[in-house]
Design brief:
By secondary structure, this protein is an alpha/beta fold. The protein folds into 4 domains: 3-118, Response regulator (Rossmann fold, 3-Layer(aba) Sandwich), CATH 3.40.50; 144-289, Rossmann fold; 296-358, Orthogonal Bundle (Helicase, Ruva Protein, domain 3), CATH 1.10.8; 375-431. The protein contains 17 helices and 14 strands. The protein has helices spanning 15-27, 74-80, 97-121, 128-142, 157-168, 187-192, 209-212, 231-240, 266-271, 277-283, 300-312, 320-328, 334-342, 375-381, 386-404, 409-416, 420-431; strands spanning 3-9, 30-32, 42-47, 64-69, 85-89, 147-150, 174-178, 217-221, 242-243, 252-253, 257-262, 287-289, 317-318, 353-354. It has a 5-stranded parallel sheet, with helices on both faces. A 5-stranded parallel sheet has the order 7-8-11-6-12. A two-stranded antiparallel sheet has the order 9-10. A hairpin with an 8-residue loop joins strand 9 (242-243) and strand 10 (252-253). The longest helix is centred in the N-terminal third of the chain and has 25 residues, at 97-121. The protein is flat and about 80 Å long. The structure holds adenosine-5'-triphosphate.
Amino acid sequence: MSLAVYPMVVPGVAESHRAQCLESLQQAGVSVCTQPFPLSPCLVVASESCSDEPDVIPPGVGLNCLLWFGAPTEKFWRLACRCSLWLLWDERQASPVHPLREKLQALTSAQANIERALDAQGLVAQSASMRQVLFHLYTAARRGVDVLLQGESGTGKEQLARLYHQFRRCDGDLATLDCTTLDEGLAGSELFGHERGAFTSAHRSRDGVIADADNGTLFLDEIGDLPLAIQPKLLRTIQERQYRRVGGNQWMTSTFGLVCASHVALESAVDAGNFRLDLYHRIAACVIMVPPLRERVEDIVPLAEHYFASRCGDGVSLSGPLRQWLCQYHYPGNVRELYQRLRLIQPEAGAAQACLSDMVMPCSIPERSATGDNWIHQSVSAGLGLDAIKERATREAKASALRLCDDSCKQAAQLLGVSERTLQLYKSELSG
Ligand SMILES: Nc1ncnc2c1ncn2[C@@H]1O[C@H](COP(=O)(O)OP(=O)(O)OP(=O)(O)O)[C@@H](O)[C@H]1O
């Protein structure tokens, strides 16, 4: 396999270390790219003397390997947690040519497979933290390790479960069970299936999701919501991959890979007595924390571009103010909320750029507000006249625009198509 790498020497690293690194790459037969290239891994070269910037690793580069000169220190761990793999270079020993080649080989083939899977599923992951999540997911899937995905709602756990299934390259299907919808009485049947006559409405025998996942992957979404009564029944199934249908007495086998997801920290659910510790230990062999969107701001613009590309065709770029507007928000609902926000923006078909002025605001004032109070109707009945009504509508529009734009007069002005000064005056009137 021909290997290429982009060495990213962190500022402050000694020149002698940089030279040693380049020499080892040459000995390992690895070519050196002069630019970060998405499909080539990045070798982050660092040592204790390097700068301590948290964002030394730029977004958009491929998977990365940290090459650290010297003994690991706190700085090493801070950097290592942003890298997929790492290699320590103990200067008393010969240069680590073979391990270096091996790690770069592993990263290169993972990178190509991950890229293919992202394309196939229409997913975007540019940030170093998401690249790392993908690498761990890929490694776990290829080694047949079960995975627990934890992260806030809307971060993409379900999409990652699909990727995990794709990475496993198995013959069977991805069988999904959303545990939030499980009725306590029917949970056993949904999971294990049932025999005919097992309960009053069981007119026929049927398979459950565990049988459906045979030779494939079982995805238990929101596993924290699994009724407590059914939890002990899953222990053997997860450990031995065996199950018994409700009303049956024969143990059956299903060979599946397991991926579970939860938006709550399951450790807290265990502490609160809502989740069994023995079940937690069986599903948490490899816990992958999916970072919230506000902690990977680098993903916001690529996700937005991806969203517009899927709606308007390729090549829609975002105007500067629109990028700024999108990146300033903190997205408690994560990618799902970003997509909802983007629905407000409607670039013209075939337009090369999406701008804030493409934003569609609700153009008619609702007939009745949630409280049932129709202020326009009341104002008209009270004989207030059009000017007073317009004046109030204008004030409400300014307040809404400022709220939407996190109090930025400039962006709110763009949104309303008025001058920035108009919004500044409105704000000073309010504070005066
Ligand atoms: N990396 C990504 N690239 C493209 N779209 C994404 C990505 N991550 C999430 N999405 C989109 O965001 C939305 C929410 O994703 P998903 O349902 O996977 O989140 P979740 O973490 O499972 O949420 P919940 O905990 O509420 O079930 C979906 O529309 C999904 O397509």
